[in-house]
Amino acid sequence: MSESPLRADAERNRVRILATARRVFAERGLEASLEDIAGQAGVGVGTLYRRFPSRADLIGAAFQEKMAAYADAVDVALADDDPWHGFCGYVEAVCGLQAADHGFADLLTLTAPGAGSLKSERDRAHAGFVELIDRAKVVGGLRADFVPEDLVMLLMANAGVLSATREAAPDTWKRFVAYMIQAFSADRSRPLPAAPTARRMYSAMLRVSPPRGRHQS
Q1: How far, in Å, CA of 90 to CA of 73, rounded?
Q2: pLDDT for 191-208, tens place per residue?
């Protein structure tokens, strides 16, 4: 039985909205206006809200594939015969995802709406990264005092580099990340100040997240 014209039209609207949301979020970040997204998708705001009742619903749907790619990247790193090489490649890959998409950069470093629906992939990535850290330390590549929160700090710092250089010198982040990877190497390590706890890093992310009101369309 062929699909009804109404159902087919609704699905076309959904596809257009998601494609437009991905592009606009990538350009402007997660604070982009939902009215702008609807307008560029060629639909009314009411149509957008019928398909995605909240900003969080739209963000969750728009970034589902990219968050899966983020989690898949750690599987690729774990499959590397050289754990230190896999670790370095993973850090570069994640920072590359961050550099390529302003919205995804927000999703990685802010407590953004929509993050809840992506929790399973985020948890998969985190669990794999913890295992990758352990392996890289065992082979003597990664400094012994590296903790998962250090990646969060790197992403937050890289977000600042990207914000300052995105227009004038868009590849600057690559040099910054290369510097940081060298700092993570065991053969260059010196004692560090105490690492922040996961709870304190979460509190820091809350502080840099836009107020809830600014996430409205």
Answers
A1: 6
A2: 767 776 777 766 665 555
